[in-house]
């Protein structure tokens, strides 16, 4: 594992150098060194207002602008088989992320085998985690179907665990007459050395440290009839052990999270229908009396329809449901055991939104959420669970620019 | 009672005929629209070893996945703007991929460090010049615009 961390540091330096060099210029996408070095980026700013509860900053009864995403990436194709890429990302998201600049990915992609029927190779370095249909580009507004991804599956709260990992990924693609099949398998160390990762799991910030074992991540993706059908299956396992601090109520415990995701999408020329279903096995053990052992199976799913009614306009309708424990969907057993609100164990979110692409580089979006439950809210933004309200509404706006 | 029923029946019949006529008009219009689209062809650098490619391989090349020709030459992909009618026609009729899906696939690769965008050119004239002068180049033009400086690729 040290190898990858050591790799990440020089990669970060190189990326910083490249980014600082290009930040002196302002223009379209940059294309240098005979067309093989390319630099792209994006800036997105969101506004969030909620009737109750805080999401992405202090939004309750006011407008939070603590939702900002800035990224710059460079890719360099040395030869057809080898590409180097890195992206620097600043992601500001209320109390869960302060927007400090991080290496989002930094990798070498080597296509070892290639023919007209397919290719296979490996990626090494800091890699985006394959997780459902949207995770690899989750912070790029242009690639998302809405201002925020469906929170039941793509939590803002626990993003650190699944955003990227340091390791290796093997991939194979087969291009067939009816469609293409892509398989990838990665082994990587997820990002757990952050406050946000700890709070997401413990709902508090204990003094010890979380250490992750190499996490296996498998994805199979079938794209049929020129991407009209996209079907995917993802299996990921996170195994985290806790090393208690010097003065710590918690013992050396262990978290095991095993999400399985089934994804499906149908794309017509003007409309798309997307659904994903996830089942998450979670086990907590060995932390002692202050953080009791538990085993739960979480369940998440959403169904989403989008329609491009004019070339620059798109509307969206989505129903998104999250249950922390599918055997205690209404949270009553949890409430009885912990005296915390039952509705913090689920969230059902009806979303409707509109997207306007002013130009291919500049996009505006507006979105309305009607939510029952607080299951996906972050503890950092809502420190007192007893002030949470079960039913709340949210209005969001987003402007995004890319080059 | 009987009279009311027969009026209902007649009005139903009228509506059904009107609907049928309307759908017929739409069908003819859409067929006409399809046949009036210019036929697009994939073109390549003249010394390219290939004369024909499977549609799946062509999709993988324009999808920015496949980076090499079978003979190991690097592929260089040229496209027109997303909103150019010829780009839409080529995507839909030759690749059989909606241009919006092609854009989404490129974005997914570029912003995860797995691939690059194709080179965008401003016009069919520029497309012909760039494809004719870049080893490994691939692009597309209307069949009527093909000149002797490029090779037409057949789809297997």
Task: Describe this structure in a few short sentences.
Chain A has 403 residues and is mainly β. Chain A has 4 helices and 19 strands.
Total of helices of chain B: 5
Note the gap between the termini of chain B: 65 Å
Q: In sequence order, what are the helices and strands of chain A, one letter per element?
A: HEEEEEEHEEHEEEEEEEEHEEE
Strand content of chain A: over 45%
Shape of chain B: elongated
CATH class label of chain A: Mainly Beta
CATH topology of the largest domain in chain B: D-Maltodextrin-Binding Protein, domain 2
Spatial strand arrangement across the major sheet of chain A: 2-3-4-5-6-7-8-10-11-13-14-15-16-17-18-19
Total number of distinct structural domains of chain B: 2
Structural class of chain A: mainly beta
CATH architecture descriptor text of the largest domain in chain B: 3-Layer(aba) Sandwich
Low-confidence stretches of chain A: 1-8, 14-28
Q: Whole-number average pLDDT of chain A?
A: 90
Tell me the span between the first and last alpha carbons of chain A. 34 Å
Helix content of chain A: 10-25%
* Secondary structure: number of strands of chain A: 19
Order of helices and strands of chain B: HEEHEHHEHEE
Estimated structural class of chain B: alpha/beta
Give the overall form of chain A.
Answer: globular
Structure description:
The complex is a heterodimer of chains A (403) and B (156). Helices cover 10% and strands 55% of the residues of chain A. Chain A is mainly beta and 403 residues long. Chain A has a 16-stranded antiparallel beta barrel with strand order 2-3-4-5-6-7-8-10-11-13-14-15-16-17-18-19. Chain A has one domain (2-402): Beta Barrel (Porin), CATH 2.40.160. In chain A, a hairpin with a 2-residue loop joins strand 3 and strand 4 (82-93). Chain B is α/β, with parallel strands linked by helices. Chain B folds into 2 domains: 1-36; 40-155, D-Maltodextrin-Binding Protein, domain 2. Helix content of chain B is 49%, strand content 15%. Chain B has helices at residues 2-36, 55-62, 85-95, 99-110, 124-133, and strands at residues 40-44, 52-53, 76-79, 119-120, 137-142, 151-155. In chain B, strands 2-6-1-5-3-4 form a 6-stranded mixed beta sheet. The longest helix of chain B has 35 residues, at 2-36. The termini of chain B are far apart. Chain A binds chain B through residues 29, 35, 38, 40, 42, 71, 73, 75, 77, 79-81, 83, 85-87, 105-107, 109, 111, 114-117, 119, 123, 127-128, 136-137, 140, 142-143, 173, 175-177, 180, 225-228, 267, 269, 308, 311, 360, and chain B through 53-57, 59-60, 65-68, 70, 74-76, 82-83, 92, 95-98, 100-101, 104-105, 107-108, 110-117, 119.
């Amino acid at each position: 594992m040290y190898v990858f961390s050591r790799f990440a540091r020089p990669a970060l330096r190189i990326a910083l150098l490249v980014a600082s060099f290009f930040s002196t210029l302002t223009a379209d996408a940059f294309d240098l060194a005979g067309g093989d070095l390319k630099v792209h980026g994006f800036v997105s700013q969101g506004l969030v207002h909620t009737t109750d509860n805080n999401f992405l900053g202090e939004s309750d009864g006011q407008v939070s602008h603590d939702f900002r995403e800035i990224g710059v990436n460079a890719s360099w194709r040395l030869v057809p088989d080898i590409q180097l890429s890195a992206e620097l990302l600043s992601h500001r998201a209320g109390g869960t992320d302060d927007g400090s600049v991080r290496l989002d990915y930094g990798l070498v992609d080597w296509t070892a085998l290639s023919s007209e029927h397919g290719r296979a190779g490996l990626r090494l370095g800091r890699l985006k985690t394959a997780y459902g249909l949207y995770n690899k580009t989750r912070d790029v507004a242009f690639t998302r179907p809405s201002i925020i991804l469906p929170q039941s599956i793509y939590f803002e709260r626990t993003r650190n665990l699944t955003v990227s990992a340091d390791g290796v990924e093997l991939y194979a693609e087969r291009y067939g007459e009816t469609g293409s099949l892509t398989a990838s398998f990665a082994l990587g160390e997820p990002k757990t050395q952050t406050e946000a990762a700890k709070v997401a799991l413990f709902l508090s910030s204990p003094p010890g440290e979380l250490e992750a074992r190499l996490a296996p991540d498998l994805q199979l993706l079938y794209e049929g009839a020129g991407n009209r059908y996209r079907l995917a299956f993802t299996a990921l396992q996170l195994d985290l052990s806790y090393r208690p601090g010097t003065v710590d109520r918690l013992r050396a415990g262990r978290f095991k999270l095993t999400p399985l995701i089934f994804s499906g999408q149908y794309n017509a020329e003007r409309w798309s229908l997307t659904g994903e279903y996830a089942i998450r096995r979670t086990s907590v053990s060995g932390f002692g009396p202050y953080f009791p052992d538990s085993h739960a199976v979480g369940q998440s799913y959403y169904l989403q329809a989008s329609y491009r009614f004019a070339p620059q306009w798109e509307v969206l309708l989505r129903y998104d449901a999250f249950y922390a424990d599918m055997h205690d969907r209404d949270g009553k057993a949890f409430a009885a055991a912990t005296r915390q609100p039952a509705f913090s164990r689920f969230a059902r979110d009806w979303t409707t939104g509109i997207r306007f692409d002013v130009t291919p580089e500049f996009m505006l979006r507006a979105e309305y959420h009607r939510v029952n439950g607080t299951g996906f809210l972050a503890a950092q933004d809502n420190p007192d669970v007893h002030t949470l309200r079960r039913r709340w509404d949210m209005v969001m706006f987003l402007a995004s620019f890319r080059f | 009672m009987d009279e009311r029923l027969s009026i209902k029946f007649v009005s139903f019949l009228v509506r059904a005929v009107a609907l049928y006529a309307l759908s017929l008009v739409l069908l003819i219009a859409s067929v006409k629209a399809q046949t009036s689209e210019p036929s697009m062809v994939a073109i390549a650098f003249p010394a390219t070893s290939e004369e024909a490619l499977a549609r799946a391989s062509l999709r993988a090349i324009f999808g920015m996945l496949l980076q090499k020709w079978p003979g190991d030459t690097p592929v260089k992909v040229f496209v027109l703007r997303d909103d150019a009618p010829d780009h839409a026609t080529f995507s839909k009729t030759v690749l059989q991929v909606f241009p919006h899906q092609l854009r989404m696939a490129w974005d997914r690769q570029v912003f995860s460090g797995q691939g690059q965008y194709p080179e965008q050119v401003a016009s069919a004239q520029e497309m012909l010049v760039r494809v004719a002068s870049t080893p490994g180049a691939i692009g597309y033009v209307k069949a009527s615009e093909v000149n002797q400086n490029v090779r037409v690729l057949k789809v297997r």
